[in-house]
Design a protein that fits this description.
- It is built from 17 helices and no strands.
- By secondary structure, it is mainly alpha-helical.
- The radius of gyration is 20 Å and the shape is globular.
Amino acid sequence: MTMKFSRNMVLSVFMIGTFAIGMTEYAVTGLLTQFAADLDVAVSATGLLLSVYAISVAVCGPLLRILTVKYSPKPLLIALMAIFIISNIVAATAPTFEILLFSRLLSATMHAPFFGLCMSMAIDISPPHKRTSAIAAVQGGLTIAIMLGVPFGSYIGGMLDWRLVFWFIALMGIINLIGIMIVTPDIKQKEIPKLKNEMAIIKNKNVWMLIAVIVLGFSGVFTAYTFTEPMLREIAGFDVTSITIGLFLFGLGAVIGNFVSGSIQPEVLTERLIVAMAILGTVLISFTFFLANPFFTYVACFLFGAGTFGTTPILNAKIILAATEAPALSGTIAASVFNLANSIGATLGSLLLTNQFSFRQITFVAGGMIFFGVILMFITHKIEDKSLFRSAERAYE
């Protein structure tokens, strides 16, 4: 396939898009008080902006991708980014909480298909030995959003106006839309994907094992992450500035972990994933003990971020590479499953806290879930088809 622009240029455009989407998903966590005051709703009600988004990504994303499976990637990316821009303009001008909630639903519908298409295209334009790094590059926009975009959005919302955050995100969307139109190659599908063939993924034991790892194991990350800020405040005794530094270090760890894991070759993904998850589980179990000392608190935040987003590209890569019968759906399913895990983990954490579990007990549960995921990965390693992760010639020359 002849490309007018370099592979790195295309991946950079994808990163801008995933940065904007990541900022949309997570920036609201620092704006809930402003939403409540401006739109006259209880702070507890504003939490729906998070949970509804995650559930919508998990449910609506795959449905939208199924409905659009016959369309070529580039025009579909353009349409999805147009939806994203419109949704954020709606959010920026929302006169009521209900309209703001609707904008979140609208934005969430394009999240998983966009990520899925970007990851699939990134693989298609990459040589076999760079497929994992291509997925990490796409995921990199999200991690950079967590490191820089979310604190920036929270600051702008707190100092000026929360609506400016959504205007900024819409502007990022417009920039990305232009980039997609100019830079992204128009890959013509050799044959139109058949939904019946794509749905054969439901019989793929390799994919189901990975979904189980994410939903039953990796969701423990979100059980603990949901309460990172109150743990830093109540256990470590951090003020606003120190908490901001801690969250920044989490984001810095996320970015570094993401790109380091991108250098892993497909043949050893499973082995590296087992090690990474074991380290992450250990960090979570020991997290509250680190909080007794400011220096070790910062170290723990960094390791938490590195472990969380150092495992994500590996899991994404394994699902996409394993789902050979569903090249059009695999990326979307991967993105949706992670948001399902997000919702499950956050809900579990809230239930534990409501039932008088301490933060230390919650991190123990979270770490235990991660280690359960490690056990599932050992089982996966025994039964998976390892030929799927060898450097098969899938890339376009």
